[in-house]
Design brief:
The structure holds two protein chains of two kinds. Chain A is globular. The longest helix of chain A is centred in the N-terminal third of the chain and has 15 residues. By secondary structure, chain A is α/β, with parallel strands linked by helices. The termini of chain A are far apart. In chain A, the strands form two sheets. In chain A, strands 2-1-3-4-8-7-10-9 form an eight-stranded mixed sheet, sandwiched between helices. By secondary structure, chain B is an alpha/beta fold. Helix content of chain B is 38%, strand content 21%. Chain B has 14 helices and 15 strands. In chain B, the strands form three sheets. In chain B, strands 3-2-4-5-7-6-13 form a seven-stranded mixed sheet, with helices on both faces. Chain B has a five-stranded mixed sheet with strand order 10-12-11-14-15, with helices on both faces. A two-stranded antiparallel ribbon of chain B has the order 1-8. The chains are: A alpha/beta, B alpha/beta. At the A-B interface, strand 2, helix 3, helix 5 and helix 11 of A face strand 2, helix 3, helix 4 and strand 9 of B. Strand 2 of chain A pairs parallel with strand 9 of chain B.
Chain lengths: 282, 382
């Protein structure tokens, strides 16, 4: 199905025309990931009125404003904390959190870890462009060592976070990472993530030529994509590689797919237990 | 509906417990919190009660997440509350501003303790009066209520939910460690004895398209909550009536913020509440809020016995503030005393209200003890 529908069809069905054009710069990858997400929703036949998009602050966090769904554009880093309130209040709603790497791993790092620990039923679509695009290209917790940003003009001297790895360790039910170049894998992963209970994450390496590439000798999106091809290693291949060869590489693929009970189910059980313990119910 | 505590009768309980029971009876079905003295008992009571009434009580990773979660819950249709003390209240300020900007009905309880910083965690203070009004950034408007007894803690909690729902606004319930941990007789009414106000929901498609408009002329837009097919977009950015970000147009920002002010200030006569004690013929007025009012009542009686015509004005709402009434009072009395458990916060509001019509004197006390009646009397009689 997803091969057959034109981009216009997807646009007309899911975007708010009065919010267009988007704020995204030429060469930005957010639009591609948005398209993957909308195609996944369309392919799964999900009810548009039973999905809420939440976000924090940053370029990718502006996405909920462009789609024709309920949406909550919150404060920097806090999207998943807001999502916890929405989901537990109305478990029928499916939550998509559209987040950036700075939003998720820096200011929102603690909320991210705890939302995963609780196994909050939410699908996080993560745009990782290694930079703070909206504020003009500062380094992020994901910026690889040596790469430049306006706040580390001589090259990043800190270690980067592996967000997908963090999510696996914290207990997420589904974690995958792709680049925006991995069209089919990306859509399939989002479909899988949206179909599962608990915390699911699909991370995308996404080009930001204007704020990030320009400062790192990659002025256009194609240059960034070629760079992704150079630094990424598929999971199956990575498993066979010695650690020293993996130094400075980013592994892509599906890292975990498991079925631990989600927060909603755990809380519903908790309510039953409370009533039993109080002798209100058998 | 079965309640996990007795209703329609009196009980002997702490202020924190009274707030939790009132919240349940007000229809609160979502509580998110983080442990902090002296507010933890509110959370513990909610944790005990909420699952039994099919509500949610959840411990978040910090106070930032707690207020975020209740805002999310409110947009999903629940009445929602969190409770904290000074340090946690400071952490909540950014999202309190988000609730103002997005016009989200929530109730935030701040059980005051000695500060700044970790300060005196187990002792009462009134050092958060200014923070409760002005803690978040930017031009904003909200409602602050301040109880002085455990019964008032109960009653004002119900009122806090009603005001939040009616005006689509965050409401702060400002109490303190003394009221929180003091046990007093409280009447817990039956549900049918309680008047509850529910938020306005859109009545037609046109209203649903204007989640930040003013279709009824009262400044309060109906709230198109999530999951009903309204496809509402909510943002903390400056937005137009339809909710679309409009961040550089002066007129849009001014229209939005002024309406948020207007929806509260146009109804301030209905929102503002105070109690008077022997104030009609008073020459000396004592103006208080919260726990200090208890000592002030006794001080007024003692002063009257000494032949001093003293009276008390006890403020039940701190914000919006009735500057006009304070000026009227200042015209009637010789002098106004403001006893408070800080180094001067309510005092500045009263002084501004008095507008030079009467002398205003601060009776400050910090360190975790409530003023004794005698301390107030001695200052008045010199």
């Amino acid at each position: 199905m997803m091969y057959l529908k034109s981009a216009y069809e997807i646009r007309d069905k899911y975007l708010r025309k009065d919010m267009l054009p988007t704020i995204f710069c030429p060469g930005c990858g957010i639009g591609s990931v948005l398209q993957f997400t909308l195609r996944a929703i369309d392919d799964l036949g999900l009810n548009q009125d039973e999905i809420v998009w939440v976000s924090g602050i940053g370029c990718s966090s502006r996405v909920p404003g462009f789609v024709n769904f309920d949406g909550l554009h919150t404060t920097h880093g806090r999207a998943l904390a807001f999502a916890t309130g929405i989901k537990l209040t109305n478990p029928n709603l499916k939550i998509i959190a559209f987040m950036g790497d700075g939003d998720t791993a820096a200011i929102g790092g603690n909320h991210f870890i705890h939302a995963i620990r609780r196994n909050l039923d939410v699908t996080v679509i993560l745009i990782n462009n290694f930079t703070y695009g909206m504020t003009g290209g500062q380094v992020a917790p994901t910026t690889l060592k040596g790469l430049r940003g306006t706040t580390a003009p001589y090259g990043q001297f800190e270690n980067p976070f592996d967000i997908a790895g963090l999510a696996v360790a914290a207990g997420a039910n589904y974690v995958a990472r792709w680049t925006v170049f991995n069209y089919l894998q990306g859509i399939n992963s989002i479909k899988k993530a949206l179909s599962k209970e608990g915390f699911t994450l699909v991370e995308f390496l996404s080009p930001c030529p204007v704020s990030f590439g320009r400062r790192n000798r990659m002025k256009t999106a194609p240059e960034l994509i070629r760079w992704y091809q150079k630094i990424t290693v598929p999971l199956a291949k990575a498993k066979k590689m010695p650690p020293e060869e993996l130094e400075g590489k980013i592994v892509i693929g599906e890292f975990v797919d498991r079925d631990r009970p989600g927060l909603v189910r755990e809380y519903q059980e908790y309510i039953k237990r409370a009533k039993r313990m109080m002798g209100w119910e058998q | 509906m079965r309640y996990p505590f007795p209703v329609g009768k009196s009980d002997f309980i702490q202020g924190d417990e009274a707030i939790a029971r009132a919240a349940i009876l007000a229809g609160c079905r979502f509580y998110a919190g983080y442990p902090i003295t002296p507010a933890s008992e509110i959370f513990e009571a909610m944790a005990l009660y909420m699952p039994l009434v099919d509500g949610v009580s959840i411990q978040m990773e910090d106070e930032i997440a707690s207020i975020a979660a209740i805002i999310g819950a409110s947009w999903a249709g629940a009445k929602a509350m969190t409770a904290t003390s000074g340090p946690g209240f400071s952490l909540m300020q950014e999202n309190l501003g988000y609730a103002v900007m997005t016009e989200t009905p929530i109730v935030v309880v701040d059980v005051q303790r000695g500060g700044p910083s970790t300060g005196q965690p187990t002792l009462p203070a009134q050092g958060d009066i200014m923070q409760s009004i002005w803690g978040t950034h930017g031009d904003h408007m909200l409602i602050v209520l301040s109880p002085s007894t455990v019964q008032e803690a109960f009653d004002f909690t119900i009122r806090a939910f009603n005001l939040a729902e009616k005006y689509r606004t965050p409401v702060v319930l400002l109490t303190d460690a003394e009221i929180a941990h003091m046990r007093e007789r409280v009447y817990i009414p039956k549900p049918e004895e309680i008047e509850l106000i529910e938020r306005k929901l859109p009545q037609n498609e046109e209203e649903a398209k204007l989640p930040f408009g003013d279709p009824h002329g009262d400044g309060v837009p109906p709230m198109p909550i999530f999951g009903k097919g309204y496809r509402t977009y909510v943002t903390g950015l400056t937005h137009d009536e339809r909710g679309r970000p409009r961040t550089v147009e002066r007129e849009v920002h001014e229209r939005l913020i002024k309406r948020i002010f207007r929806k509260i200030l146009d109804h301030k006569d209905e929102i503002i509440s105070y109690d008077e004690f022997m104030l009609e013929d008073a020459e000396i007025a004592i103006v208080t809020t919260g726990i200090v009012s208890r000592s002030a009542v006794r001080a007024v009686k003692m002063l009257r016995e000494k032949g001093v015509k003293a009276g008390l004005l006890k403020l039940n709402t701190i914000w919006p503030f009735d500057f006009d009434y304070i000026e009227e009072l200042a015209e009637r009395v010789r002098k106004i005393y403001v006893p408070e458990m800080n180094l001067g916060q309510l005092y500045h509001l009263v002084k501004e209200g008095a507008n030079g019509k009467a002398e205003v004197e601060l009776i400050a006390k910090i360190g975790g003890e409530v003023h004794t009646p005698m301390e107030i009397v001695e200052r008045v009689v010199g």
